[in-house]
Automatic annotation (TrEMBL):
UniProt signal peptide: 1-28
Alphabetical keyword list: Signal
Protein name per the record: TlpA family protein disulfide reductase
GO molecular function: oxidoreductase activity
Organism the protein comes from: Ramlibacter monticola
Gene3D superfamilies cross-referenced by the UniProt entry: Glutaredoxin
InterPro entries: Redoxin, Thioredoxin-like_sf, Thioredoxin_domain, Thioredoxin_ResA/DsbE_sf
Stretches assigned to the Thioredoxin domain: 23-163
Length: 165
């Protein structure tokens, strides 16, 4: 009985904290809904079957702005092969700034605004930008990057994941 109580309590604490559940050694991406700039919605479930990078960023983040051309280049290189990218603007980022940035830089990938902070909370209480999560075709988080990724390493990992069935 004691072991069951501890396991049950741990499960409740993990669920309440919005932590990731470990499935087969990998962390399942949290089930979230991204509200895109055009008002449409994308869900984590909608990414299944694709390799995806969920990138939390802000227009006021110097590193985010510096890495954005590389994010665009990565998207352009792999999108036709089944790669998706969702740029999630942090809740403190004014929506008009995000729209202006996305339009003037002609960002080719999906951009969402996390108005309430719920998406950042679900993905592990993201507070530092940039923070990115690489998700495989099964919807599992393969790698988390805090700060600018090593793009050569990221590209190798994307290619490996795209080659998996």
């Amino acid at each position: 009985m004691g072991k069951q109580w501890i396991l049950g309590t741990a499960a409740v604490v993990i669920a309440a904290a919005g932590a990731f559940f470990v499935v087969g050694g990998s962390q399942a991406a949290p089930q979230t809904t991204f509200v895109l700039l055009d008002g449409s919605k994308e869900t984590t479930a909608g990414l299944k079957g694709k390799v995806a990078l969920v990138n939390f960023w802000a227009t006021s983040c110097v590193t985010c702005v510096a890495e954005m051309p590389k994010m665009v280049s990565t998207y352009d290189k792999y999108h036709a092969k089944g790669y998706e990218h969702i740029g999630v603007a942090m809740s403190y980022d004014p929506p008009s700034y995000v729209v202006n940035y996305a339009e003037t830089r002609k960002l080719p990938f999906k951009v969402a605004i996390d108005n309430t902070g719920a998406v950042a909370q679900a993905w592990g209480e993201v507070r530092l930008t940039p923070t990115s999560y690489l998700v495989n075709r099964k919807g599992e988080i393969v790698k988390r990057y805090v700060g600018e990724p090593d793009f050569a390493e990221l590209h190798r990992l994307i290619e490996k994941l795209l080659a998996e069935s």
